[in-house]
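Let us practice reading a record.
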Amino acid sequence: MSPTSSTEPADAFSGKRILVTGAGKGIGRATACLLAARGAHIVALSRSADDLHALEREIGCETHVVDLADAQAARDASLAAQPIDRLVNNAGIAQLQPFLELGVEAFDQTMAVNVRAAMIVGQICARNMIERGVAGAIVNVSSVSAHIGFALHGAYCASKAGLDALTRVMAVELGPHGIRVNSVNPTVTLTPMGEKAWSDPDKSAQMLSRIPLNRFAQPEDVAHAIAYLLGDESRMINGTSLAVDGGFLAR
């Protein structure tokens, strides 16, 4: 499937500035490339300068190197990125620890990146949209982990459940301003982080057995769902969590 294959035109996002956090790898990179192919000007945030330089060479995007775990750095980078018409809060981390050994530092860092950063970046982008009278859209990249308790994923599951709750509140409060907010909730996605978490064959086989389509997601699968929620075709969709899970949650 080509990056632009959809019922939406190839220039669906022409003239739109779209901010993508965590754009250096995985879902964020696939999303940035897809949206750029559909005419968007991408503003990419990542901790890795090397990843951003590679992405810039590929799609000609604007880049900002930032550690979103740092609240002030997240604010500064978000302000520097304005004006923004669409936002993809994709940045996320996973620190796998048994619940009885889960450290406060790991928990706090996970919440800072996976939830707090989405709040900070979302606030700044939404304020700018409101000031400019832009009917925008925000997509928060969550996970089926928001609904399921996975062993070793205490901090991660808690953060994604929190992100879904934040999404609903954002949708309720920003909707009157014409700004839609939704989340996508993928199953295991074969990004570097996903491969690290699910590299054990026995563990991955058990997970695959619960997915009716019998495969994990590719980053492009999630990117297409994000593009749909950002586009005009989803103009009446607000406050939803869209599972991109091959039927995992249907069981």
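A brief commentary: The chain is about 45% helix and 15% strand.
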